[in-house]
Write a structure and sequence with these properties.
Elements lengths: L2 E6 L5 H13 L4 E5 L6 H10 L5 E9 L4 H7 L5 E6 L8 H8 L8 E2 L5 H13 L3 H29 L2
Parallel strand pairs: 1-2, 1-3, 3-4, 4-5
Helix pairs in contact: 1-5, 2-3, 5-6
The structure holds 5-O-phosphono-beta-D-ribofuranose (RP5).
Length: 165
């Protein structure tokens, strides 16, 4: 199976990005985690993305806040799919700054952008991309969907029982 690269701009992003790592682990998807900044370690970030395909990666998840250039700069150096997680790293604008920086890519260099702090969906989207050519992984995704549906219906049954008169 291809690996997922998870890269974030700062150690301060880890508490949120760990949710993506946990999801990848739940699906037994091989992954590597790095803290490389587009601004503070540009050479390392460049090497990761430029060599990602030949190093066995199938998808890259890139998380960054504030100016949030990481996902875009990673995408500029690879034709692998790049999923951007805009991080709510400051109270200023609640992550809208990072959301716009991540999503507003110029034509030709796409970044698939999830919600602000949307780490779980970033991992699930990465798994969905790998599952295009992996039936066993697709089956695991279907099982998770079914389990999620069950949970919501159980909560609904409880709410109906509690509140409906
Ligand atoms: C971004 O700036 C990082 O991804 C982080 O979300 C934000 C703040 O970084 P620190 O100042 O906490 O290192 O590059």
């Amino acid at each position: 199976m291809k690996k997922v690269a998870v890269v974030m701009g700062s150690a301060s992003d880890l508490p949120v990005v760990e949710k993506a790592i946990k999801t990848l682990r739940e699906f037994d998807v091989p992954h590597e985690v790095h803290i490389y900044s587009a601004h503070r370690t540009p050479e390392e970030a460049h090497a990761l993305s430029a060599n990602a395909r030949k190093n066995g990666f199938g998808v890259i998840i890139a998380a960054a806040g504030m100016a949030a250039h990481l996902a875009g700069s990673v995408a500029a150096n690879t034709t692998l799919p790049v999923i951007g997680i805009p991080m709510k790293s400051t109270t200023f604008s609640n992550g809208l700054d990072a959301l716009l920086s991540t999503v507003q890519m110029p034509s030709g260099i796409p970044v698939a952008t999830v919600a602000v702090d949307g780490a779980v969906n970033a991992a699930l989207l990465a798994i969905e991309i790998l599952a295009v050519s992996d039936d066993a992984l697709a089956e695991k995704l279907a099982e998770k969907r079914a389990a999620d549906t069950k949970k919501v219906l159980a909560a609904n049954a409880e709410a109906e029982e509690t509140y409906n008169r």
